[in-house]
Structures are given as structure tokens and as C-alpha cells.
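Hi C.,

You asked whether I'd gotten around to modeling the 534-residue construct. I have! Everything is below, sequence then structure, no commentary in between.
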Amino acid sequence: MKRFVSLLCLAALVVSMLAGCGSTAPAASTAPAASSSSAAASTEASATPAPAAEPEEIKVMVWDRGKDTFSDSSMTVADNGLTRWIQEQVLAAKNVKVTYVSSPRSKSDDKVNAMMAGGNAPDLILTYSRDVFGNFATQGGLTDLTALLQSDGQNIIKHIGKETLDVGVLEGKQFAIMTRRGIQVARHTGYIRKDWLDKLGLAVPTTNEELTAALYAFKEKDPGGLGDKNIPWGMGGVSDTEKFYLSYVNQYVTKPYEGENLWVYQVNTASLNPQAKAGFAAMNKMYNDGIISKDFAVDTKNDKYIADVSNGYVGFTLDDSFSIYGNGWVEAAQTKVPEAKYVAVKAFTGVNGEYKNPAEPTYGTYIMVPKKSEAKAQAVVKYLDWLADPVNAQNVRYTPAQKTDESGLPVGPTEEENKTGNYPAVPDDLNILNKHFAFMDDEAKVIASYAWIKGVTPEELPDLVRGSITEMVVFPVQQTLLANSSKYGKAVQDAALQMAYRCISAPADQFETTYESEYQKVMQAGFDKILAEK
């Protein structure tokens, strides 16, 4: 998650808990207990207070998305108004001194791998990849946190829960503390221009055939009057996600989310099912017919894609759920085309005649302590235990300056308020553990929490939200770690993404040869070994 996306996890506590949103009270003194042999001396010297224990110091990884702006130019993603507030609170409550170490969000696993290999990783590292986690764990690179979780992680146990924590267990050892996600949403959602459909007298598509017909109608009839700027299907070429194509091509697979398919082809490699080739062929045809963004594959930072959506040029897109709203692209488009309106579309019915969308799992990042930092592990768990408390999590997620709306739900700072307060652009990047708040089990309150979405009426909001929180399927976690998946998984995922982009954008008469050669590259990257092992 993405990935996008702080606004996907909008959350709140019940009103009775909001009164406790101030600073966390310091914990009681945790000076070591005196041994029996020194008890008498301790009594005689009772008038002299014991010296305070020196704070335990840890270094914590934080993602740098390259989009922070602060009113104080000396501030950074690792040192800003919110990090300083957290540091003060954790020092007072847990006697732990935290220093943040920034790491680029783009290709973050490559950076983590490099730091681990170089022996200079911080004491707390992050990944979304089970393969990266598994490789570290099986190679002896991680600290076993089992005992420390029991002794110093009661908030973690209470608020994250066994089901989520168990994802970080291998061979009975807790090698990772798992992030508990907030609202469970589909990984990716299709959005289509309702105003363009209305101009053409078309209903919102509910099947693949209807979606295809609408996209070609957008191209041929140009309802936006855009000429050569008209883009029926907008795509980018960012290099770390399958979001632009997975839900589309997977509808060509017979029962992609059942039985063996669900276990053999996990979400990042689901497009490697041989039946998905028909989906890539369909996208290739649309690309060569001018339906899909021209040269999308070289738009590796999504700059042109974002500009196209923001300028109102795009008729349909498949992206992270709510991202076109959460990032302000729809709002920007409406300043140029006031009638522009996107609605969620469930049209990937394919050969099965049913719509299913891979969901974000209930767990998020793997939070790990490198083996070299074993002496710091207790302090790391204490820090995470502070973060697990829902009151602290809310203060981090929405900043201590948070406001509440008329429903009592917290509202995060605006971009300008973040800048003025020297808060990071994505405060939730510091809320790495507990993203699930009490109200998130109530659909009506979940819908209300998306009231921040601009360009949608209150009457339209429920359908928009339900479009990304229903008819989902969750890929299972393979508790038995497979050696080849861990060893080759990252290389295979990278090769699968390149295969997808090259197949979609190949010249029409070269699709077959491109697919075959690219599939062989995926196999050579290790997918043949992964398949054999599974």
C-alpha cells in the first residue's frame, strides 16, 4: 500500500478516546532492581536517589518519497516537526532515543538489500516483500524478537493481534513485527470518466466487453474535445508495481483466485500465468490502436501520467485505490474541466463472468531488526510498543495538530498546514505499526471517513467507496518459506514487470515473439525454480 498512500488509511478513534490525544505521559522509572547482596547498602543510602538510566539509542529507517516541503529549509524527512515530537514522547515514555535514517521509497528493497550486505543498515528496517524478509531470515540476518515481544511488547500483542503477527513468524521465531493495516481495500481499482460516458449516452461498464467498447468510443468520438491530447486509457511506467495491468490481464485466467492458482501465482507474479497472455494481447492491441498512453513505459516516474490525469486528458485508469483522489489529481482536473467526474468501474469480468479484485492484506510492512543490531532489539521493541498504542498512532498519523470533523473523525493537515508545521508530506510513513482504528469495522463510518474526497457529492460517495472495499480476494500467506521464492522472488518480480510493459507496448506484429522472449527472461531470472519448488 502502496505504495500511495497515506489517505487510503484515514482513521479515527471513538470520541471518548479523542480526549486522550495529547502527549503521552512518561513511564514510571525503570531503574534496575538491586540485588539481594546490596539491599542493606541500598537502604542505608536511601536518601540518595538512584541515577537515571542512560537512554538506549536506536536508528530507525524512514522512507523518503522526495515530495516533502517544509517552511524551515533545514528540515528533512528524517528531522522535522513530527519526528522531533515522536522523539520527545518516546524518550519520556520508554527512555529510548530515536534517530531516523532516510531511505528512498522508490526501489526501497534494493536499498535495504545493499545496506544489509554492507553491514550499515539501521537498527529497524522495513520491506513489503515476503521474499526479501524470508531471504534475510533464512540467511541468519535477522534478530529473533520472540522473547522481547512478550516482555516489552504488550501493546503490540494487544493492538496488532496474533493473526497479523504470525505472518512474521518462521519456524516458531518472530523475525518480523507486522504492520496492521487500517481499512482493507482493493489493491487496484478502475476509474472511468462518467461525464464522457454521459455525453456518449453510455452506461458505466460492468463487463470487459462494455469497457472495451467505451474506450474505443472515447478514442473515436473524443467526448472531451481534446484532439491528439485525448487518452482513453492512461498509464504510467513506474518500476515497482503491477497496478496498471494486473486486474485487467488476470480476468483472462480461468479462476485466477481459486485453488492451485491462488498458491502458485501470488499477487506480484499472477500475470505470469500462461492464460494471462490473452490479456496482454488485448492490451497490446489497444496500445497500437492509440487507446493506451503512448510511450507509457518510459514514463518511469509517472510524471506524464499524473499530468495527463490532472489536466483532464484521461478517460479511464487502473491505479491504486483512491490514488487519483488522494493525490489531488481529480481536483486538479476539475479546475480545468469543471464537469470532469470519475467513478469506480467493476468491469474486469473476463472468461469467468465475475468480478474479483486482489485486496491489500490485513498486514503491511515487515518490520525487522538486523542481526548486527541484536543488542538494540529491546529498545526497538519498546519503540514499536509505543507506536502500537492507538492514541500515539493517531497522533503520528494525523500529527499532534490534528483536527476533527463534525463526525468526530480526525482530519489530517492540508498540504499547506504540513508545510507550515514542518510535518512530512506523508505523516503515515512514521506510523509504521498500527493503522487500524476502532471505527474501521463500521461500514458507515468507513464511508464517512472518505468525506475528504473532492469532486464527489455525498450521494455518490458510498458507491465510490464500496467500489474499492467489496468483492475482494486475499492471497494466502505461505507460512512455510520456500528457499527458491526467497532467493529469486525479487528478480522474478522485476522481470515480470518488464515483461508486462514490453508486451503491452510491442509493435503489433512483434507481440508473439516479444511475449515468448520476455517470458523466457522471467524463467531465467528464477521463476522456473520457483514453479518447480511450489
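If it helps when you're writing up: Residues 1-46 have pLDDT under 50 and may be disordered.

Thanks,
B.
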